[in-house]
Amino acid sequence: xxxxxxxxxxxxxxYLNPQFVLMVSFWTTTICIVVAVVASxxxxxxxxxxxxxxxxVATCAVxxxxxVAFTVLNGLFADAGR
Length: 82
Fold this sequence. Notes:
Blueprint: H1 18-44, H2 50-76
């Protein structure tokens, strides 16, 4: 028995495979957060200087932000390349 009243689900599309992009984005952002937390803990316990802390956190913020931006743009420009 099939239900013909509901329209078929529209598949998610992206310029690149959206599932793969989301997976890479998730793990990249997760790694950046873990690295920033470890650097912060090391700075709190004075194993590293505050200069290293801010450089590490800033680097992770740039990488994580770029990854999230790429994921969003992959979805926005999905139909432009096809």
